Amino acid sequence: MDEQIEVKELDSVVVHFSGDSGDGMQLAGNIFSTVSATVGNGISTFPDYPADIRAPQGSLTGVSGFQVHIGAGKVYTPGDKCDVLVAMNAAALKMQYKHCKPQSTIIIDTDSFGPRDLQKAEFSSDDYLAEMGIDSDRVVACPITKMVKECLVDSGMDNKSMLKCRNMFALGLVCWLFNRDLSLVSNFLREKFRKKPAIAEANIKVVEAGYNYGHNVHASVPNTYRIESKVKEPGRYMDITGNKATAYGLIAAAEKAGLRLFLGSYPITPATDILHELAKHKSLGVTTVQCEDEIAGCASSIGAAFAGALAATSTSGPGICLKSEALNLAVIDELPLVVIDVQRGGPSTGMPTKSEQTDLLQVLYGRNGESPMPVIAATSPTDCFDAAFNACKIALEHMTPVVLLTDAFIANGSSAWKLPNIDDLPEIHPHFAPEEQKYKYTPYKREAYSNVRYWAIPGQEGYEHILGGLEKDGETGSISTDPDNHDLMDHLRFDKVARIPVPDLEVLGDANDADLLIVGFGSTYGHLLSTMNELRAKGHKVALAQFKYVNPLPKNTAEVLGQYPKVVVAEQNLGQLAALLRIRINHFAPYQYNQVKGQPFVVSELVKEFEKLINAPMPKEEKGTTFYSKILE
């Protein structure tokens, strides 16, 4: 073997870490993505873990994965297939090999491929590589468990503790493969385990051992790789998950509004990290309450909103079901409340750790009576910050509860995020009752143009009032069962939401000359954008319109969707956005592409299906319809 190994420069690479739930794959992947973001690479990650608290060791159902796509420039998806697969045991190889490219490098711990391990992973022979059709030249077969124990033999750690460091050996190998600076890894570990310095140093020692193993034996690969960052906008960057970005967006909005932030919440996968993150920031005036159930979480936040706080509640789909009655109280009281729905697989308990977009119609219509609420859908982990900030701004300036839709994919996934300057963020002006209403205030007096009622904080002399769940007279605020008043109040609440100004729908790609317009909402943005780019690279005229504001819809929605001969709505449900657009836009009947797999879209599959659609002849239009409707297989 030559002493010098060639270093290849790449524009992007996808690495997939996989192993048992207890093998620390999420931590290894998170460290690698953080180090990559630190050196200026674009990143997109996808943690994928089982719903079991702890599945049987070595079982197929217990495999946990973390995929990270790093690039010289901005990357929009975690990638369809990986260039490097780390498989810490036989089950991981069996379950995750399907994510590999044909020539990908596979790193395995040979100590976890014994007869019992192969049996648990349902291999039929000892020659597991041949059974799966894997070329052994692509495999870095390393006795990781044995080498970790040898590395830590003098550490004083017990066997169980030493085994927990196996993920760091694999991380060291990957860092060698991609020429990563180990000092960045060491800094991360010392910070993470700052209260346990011995653990930090043990992990650092194992990372270095993995790196040195690759360097000394060249790990059976012809090249190592480097991803050089392209010119980026100067500033401070960090690797941030969607849940953390959401929490930071709420904090920033409270700062700009001059209000205390209150979060009433009940732990639920995959939203709990929002509660965990906000609980760390009491010094910033944040109050968090972990309530006894979902209903109490929402009700306590409504009380905080009535008392003058910027109030939020976080949950997932099952929690939205439970909160629905309390949300109606916020609607009829017209109180500012931010409701964060981190969508997951359903129905019922469904697939708690998997991602879907199946709550859209629930947050729009899942309450009794006419109960309009603005709905915003974040498009990426970093966009969760802006989406949360804007949800707060709408809630406070228009006196309404607002739903922020994220999902497990972007909530747990991460991207490189440039820290914003708080002074550069938009101003937020809560719609407080003016001085001239003192002693004349009633709770449903409204601004004429916007129909927004004025907000008076309890305890202010001259602004005493009562709110509640019974219908109120629009003039006096007293309980009213008058039919004309109820009709008026329903119209006012609906009209107030409809008048909220939102940005126009932006069209990317061949905006004025496309044969196909791709339409989506929320977290599918990166996959749909990548699909559009690949189709355009093939010579097709394609455009993309991604909805971030779902209620109210952008005012140019009908105009945009009516410009193109073929429109396909792609979403991770069975057609909820398509149904909404049919309701709101006359004679609109798009093609649909729907998947409910609990996994992100696969760009190569989208390209294949949409190319078929582009090349298909235009169907004969049916009377009264502008577009031909078809569910794509």
TrEMBL record:
InterPro entries: 2-oxoacid/accept_OxRdtase_asu, Pyruvate:ferred/Flavod_OxRd, Pyrv/ketoisovalerate_OxRed_cat, Pyrv_Fd/Flavodoxin_OxRdtase_N, Pyrv_flavodox_OxRed_cen, THDP-binding, Transketo_C/PFOR_II. The keyword Oxidoreductase applies. Residues 22-212 form the Pyruvate/ketoisovalerate oxidoreductase catalytic domain. Pfam families: POR (PF01558), POR_N (PF01855). CDD domains: TPP_PYR_PFOR_IOR-alpha_like. Residues 262-442 form the Pyruvate flavodoxin/ferredoxin oxidoreductase pyrimidine binding domain. One of its GO terms (molecular function) is oxidoreductase activity, acting on the aldehyde or oxo group of donors. Keywords: Oxidoreductase. It comes from the Bacteria. GO terms for biological process: response to oxidative stress. The keyword Oxidoreductase applies. This is 2-oxoacid:acceptor oxidoreductase, alpha subunit. It comes from Prevotella micans F0438.
